[in-house]
Write a structure and sequence with these properties.
Layout: H1 10-20, H2 27-39, H3 54-61, E1 88-93, E2 96-97, E3 109-114, H4 125-133, E4 137-142, E5 152-157, E6 163-166, E7 169-174, E8 179-187, E9 193-204, E10 209-217, E11 223-232, E12 237-246, E13 249-258, E14 264-273, E15 278-287, E16 293-302, E17 307-316, E18 324-333, E19 339-348, E20 354-362, H5 366-374, H6 379-391, H7 401-418
Parallel strand pairs: 1-5, 4-7, 5-8, 6-9, 7-9, 8-10, 9-11, 10-12, 11-13, 12-14, 13-15, 14-16, 15-17, 16-18, 17-19, 18-20
Antiparallel strand pairs: 1-2, 3-4
Amino acid sequence: MSTLAEKRNLTEEIQAAFIERGLGDDSSRKKALDLLLEKGFPGPKSEEYKFTPITRLLEKALDLNNIRTTKNIVAPVSLSIVNELKCNMVVFVNGQFSKEHSVLIDEEIRIQSEAADDAKIESDPFNLLNQAFANKVIEISIGSRKSVQHPLAIIYYFDSSKFVFANPRWRCIVGSQSSITLLEHVHSPDSSLYFNNKQSTIEVGENSQIEYITIQNGPATGIEVNNTVVHLSASAQASCFTFTFDGQLIRNNLNVTIDGQGVDAHLYGLYLLTKNTFADNHTVVDHRNPNSFSNELYKGVMDGNSKGVFNGKIYVRPQAQKTNAFQSNRNILLGDMATINTKPQLEIWADDVKCSHGCTTGQLDEEALFYLRSRGISKEMAKGMMLYAFASETIASMKNETIKSFLDGLISEKLHKNF
């Protein structure tokens, strides 16, 4: 006679691990845990996570016992994904900030450890989980009137074949009239098992510019939740790029707050998914002041048993008159088993605005494919050309030419190899 495996109580295990590690003496951590226990982990009835079975996956995979030390670990001394890129590095090894593996080559950048802000009931449950277990917030600061020459790479390095429960937390403060490129990436052997539950905040001062690029390229066993908040002051310019290529389950929560006039914000996303990869992008653009612009373009190509989710929200507050806000999500499904759930949303309380949103889901244009093949191009090459033209729009406006060139090659390789 067969027996059913007993279902794990994730909240009880989280609470037990929290107590066992003696984290309850920190009032901020204790408050975060209490709010998490009150809120609970998202289930099928949770509106924000109803298409994303992350709690069920964590009940199967999460191991709270494996917190590895950063000592005696040979982390990368250069950003190996872009060999030509000379950059500053802030490195988290198995979820913990590693000063010995971090490298700063631009004197405009300062790094220090700070206490976390108080937890809030409206926070995402995984933000609360991060705040309960994170050691400190790593604060990265760039002063006013500084132009940082080299990109700053935030690297999450994992070295263990055992499951790693990681909660990195960082905040970047960019002073007024400054500029910087931020690059975020997981670096890990293909066999690594981990849950990288990341929380980050980027505060952009007046008249400052940032280019924020996230590359998610496996391993296929990795589980990631990325909570990112970008706060833009008056006349700030921000371009946020999110590229998802591989991983077991990846959830991206990107919240952009436009808190000043004259802001120019762009959000680009590309997810090229194969096999069983699950990618969920949730974005929020919150216009709180008048005379600002935002544009959002997310594209997806899915094959195999992959699954994609896109939920984009635009809020235009009553005082945010003269707002221009646009959002588009476009998807191509290449296989019968691939799926996408998309939900663009607009909530507008102002009357003098220009806003639009839309989404499309379909397959490759057979007429265009036939046209290319009639010119002597093979079916595989024609398919790759069409998909590349579709995907490459998401990198067209990227300013850092080295990273742009690398991503261009990576997109081309992925499309011709996997699709």
